[in-house]
Amino acid sequence: MDIEHYRNFIAIVDCGNISAAAKELHIAQPALTAQVKALQKKFNAELLRVRRGARSVELTDAGAILYNKARFLCAIEDSVKSEIVSVVSGISGKLSISLSPSMSIMFIKNFLSGFARQNPGVEYDLYEVGIQEQTQQLLSGVTEIGIANAQLLQSSRFETLVNRREQLGIVYHKDTRWIPEDKVYLDLKDLEDIPLCLSRGCSEQFLGICSDSKIFPRILCINSTKYSTIAWASERLGIAIVPIGPGETFGEDIVVRFVHDDRMYLNKTLSIVKDRPLSAVARNFLKYYSERA
To answer: CA–CA separation, 116 vs 123, rounded Å?
Structure first.
């Protein structure tokens, strides 16, 4: 089976119907329909089903398996092409990384910017997604490297190359009066009855710590990213609980303090899929990262 048929099948699913995919791929619709029929004959299974009352298509259970595996096969072929280009022309190609949403800005600042200056031929695909989608992207081959602030699903299928603790901090506007300025060490009890803003990546862990300590926090909001969480605090609407990287600051009006509790840490990890070869670009980036992490 020509791998282009798999690519075209992916396009049909992503576009929602054969007609739209045909226009995007510049292929005649009858030819694309014939490819789908050939795939269904090859696998002896219905792969796509037309939704009732609509021209759009939906995957059958068999089609969903083919879609995910086809994405993996196409990603492998792209990786092969990229690695051959890298060997022939030096460090070039594409670096694809999945990141927890709150980590991307500091990651770009601390690592990708320097690597990009040293390797101008490299392109970047960064996906700021949650743990579930990170896991799926890595296993399907959409990305090669995952950087997360919580454990990936199906953890036995991954190799963790870097594991570093990052402390959860208390972030608030300097004019906020909820936190006593003269108290050197804060504890969880100091956060009761204060509107708290949590970043999603640390919310489950923080709430678990509170539950274990019989503390009942007042949650104002839970946000997808660290910086949207801090935005609430900067408007003096609440106090943000977010992971704080080494030397990280948020402006002269924003105060960062820490709770005196050994449980207030996240494990920041860098992982790859076990026993899966990496592209030359990914290997070079991991070498660069390990020298600076």
So the answer is: 9
Q: Which CATH superfamily is domain 76-164+268-292 in?
A: Periplasmic binding protein-like II (3.40.190.10)
Cα gap 83→105, rounded to integer Å: 27
Question: How distant, in Å, are the alpha carbons of 109, 191, 270 from that of 114?
Answer: 8, 39, 18
Nearest to 95 by CA among 77, 82, 85, 104: 82
**Res. 90 pLDDT band, cuts 50 70 90:** very low
Q: Inform me whether the pLDDT recorded for 247 exceeds 80.
A: no
Alpha carbon distance 95, 143 (integer Å): 8
Instruction: Write down the CATH superfamily of domain 166-265.
Output: Periplasmic binding protein-like II (3.40.190.10)
Tokens at 277, concatenated? 């070869």
Q: Give the separation between CA 13 and CA 17, rounded to whole angstroms.
A: 7
Which helix (H) or strand (E) is 168 found in, with range? Answer: strand 158-173
* Ordered alpha helix ranges (H), the chain: 3-15, 18-25, 29-43, 61-89, 104-107, 113-118, 131-140, 200-212, 226-234, 280-292
Task: Write out pLDDT tens, residues 74-87.
Answer: 988 887 877 676 65
Percentage helix, strand, coil for the chain under 3-state DSSP, each rounded to 5: 45, 25, 30
What does the pLDDT look like over 115-174, one tens digit per residue? 999 888 889 999 988 888 999 999 999 999 999 877 788 989 999 998 888 889 999 999
This prediction's pTM? 0.59
